[in-house]
Amino acid sequence: MPRYKLTIEYDGTPFVGWQIQAAGESVQGVLARAVTRFSGEEAAVHGAGRTDAGVHATGQVAHVELARDWPPDTVRDAMNAHLRPHPVAVLAAERAEGDFHARFSATGRRYLYRIIARRPDLVLERNRAWRVLRPLDAKAMAEGAARLIGRHDFTTFRAIGCQAASPVKTLDRLEVETVPLEGPGMEIRVHAQARSFLHHQVRSMVGTLVKVGEGAWTPDDVSAALEAADRTRCGPMAPSAGLYLAEVTY
Fold first, then answer.
1. Is the pLDDT of residue 162 over 90?
2. Residue 52's closest CA among 181, 199, 176, 170?
3. Helix intervals (H) in 40-152
4. Upper half-sphere CA count for residue 69 (Cβ side, 13 Å)
5. Which of 183, 163, 167 has its CA nearest to residue 226?
6. Using CA atoms, how far apart are residues 138 and 115, in angstroms rounded to an integer?
7. Which listed residue (11, 52, 137, 172) is catalytic?
8. How buried is residue 180: exposed, middle or buried, by Cβ count under 10 Å (0-12/13-18/19+)?
9. Beta pairing partners, 90
10. Is 52 tagged catalytic?
11. Are 84 and 39 in contact (CB under 8 A)?
């Protein structure tokens, strides 16, 4: 059966997350319905990562198998026609090898987290970034981020219900970038890259780095929290709205 690799963008605000659940609309669910409506087939859509409720994607990857050999552009355009008005779009569809798996074939994942520091409420960026009220020290945040790069036991930054077999992960990149804004305030972007992440790891690391940016923690406090391997030593978890699955590599 022909297998298709899909690159997908979505606004996670109205969804319960990527994965189909008993109650609520999911990204996976609306994609599966779009496949059925254009092809007449009941086909599972397998994603590279299970993003939580409110988390966005600019580069989620999924795969689907269809009985008929459709041109990839037809798959893309037909799915998009049936996805409307949901805030989900198939950016690209391409034929994949029969053993390709969106999740298990992935060699890396990159997440972006957006923080906007300003007093006024967010309007155009509402649900798309975390608003904090005071300016942040991006240099101190970058120093704290450097303490987390490498292979570590990330128990401190792991969700209580995380189902990963081991808390040990290799964090290849955790970079803090300052982006100028035309209006008031500042934007800080945190880029995180690894082969895979623990549940809530990125949001937990970002919340901890914001404590550093506020001056409440030092980079040494980040090291101590990591070495403690204790979830209670983590900073507050950042909201889901600022997180984006930006890229999956193969």
1. no
2. 199
3. 72-83, 138-146
4. 2
5. 167
6. 11
7. 52
8. exposed
9. 8
10. yes
11. no
Count of CB atoms situated within 10 Å of the CB of 73? 11
pLDDT of residue 184: 86
Asked if residues 204 and 192 have their Cβ atoms less than 8 Å apart, the reply is no
How high does pLDDT run on average in the chain? Answer: 96
Q: Are 27 and 88 in contact (CB under 8 A)?
A: yes
Give the CA count within 13 Å in the CB-facing half-sphere of 30: 25
Q: Do 208 and 9 form a contact (C-beta atoms < 8 A)?
A: no
pLDDT in tens, 59-115: 999 999 999 999 999 999 999 999 999 999 999 999 999 999 999 999 999 999 999
Closest listed residue to residue 210, CA positions, set 158, 138, 146: 138
Taking the C-alpha atoms of residue 188 and residue 108, their distance in angstroms, rounded to an integer, is 23
Determine the 3-state secondary structure of 120 from DSSP: coil
Residues 60, 182: Cα–Cα separation, whole Å: 29
Sorted by sequence, the CB contacts under 8 Å of residue 192 that are 6+ apart come out as: 110, 111, 112, 113, 171, 173, 174, 202, 205
* Span 36-48, average pLDDT: 95
